[in-house]
Amino acid sequence: MTKILSTYIGDGKTTLTHEPTGAQIQTDLPPDNGGKGRLFSPTDLLASAFASCILTIMGKMAERNGEKLEGACIEIEKVMAQNPRRIGEFILHITFPPYFTPSQKQRYLGAVQACPVHQTLREDIKITIHTD
């Protein structure tokens, strides 16, 4: 079990401390919710967690298959919904290494469904995926 301490430091910002390591990040209230948007927002962190989760699973797959994944990246966009205010959609643009075949790309896309972050999301969040 991992503990994370979240501390409000004022002016819409929090500090998050990863208790096992002491590593810290900060968040800020986003402009579309009355904040200044100086840092990642909490929903930005969820989008970031989703993208990094997918890539780490793909990396594990590549290692197991003796393939190279270096250079792969995901650009993720979150689309906010209202009533209640929440994330309504994630749009992912996944860029694979240029030497990946269509068959490899399709196999690695399975990481999206395998990602624990994805498995934790509400079922009504739309997930749109584009690849290069």
Fold topology:
Blueprint: E1 4-10, E2 13-18, E3 24-28, H1 42-65, E4 73-81, E5 86-95, H2 102-108, H3 110-114, H4 116-120, E6 126-131
Parallel strand pairs: 5-6
Antiparallel strand pairs: 1-2, 2-3, 4-5
The share of residues in extended strands comes to 25-35%
CATH architecture of the largest domain: 2-Layer Sandwich
Structural class: alpha+beta
The strand order across the widest sheet is 1-2-3
Report the order of strands and helices.
EEEHEEHHHE
- SS field, number of helical segments: 4
Mean pLDDT: 96
| Backbone shape | globular
Annotation, overall tally of beta strands: 6
Task: List the quaternary state of the chains.
Answer: single chain
CATH superfamily of the largest domain, please? K homology (KH) domain
Poorly predicted residue ranges:
none
CATH class type of the largest domain: Alpha Beta
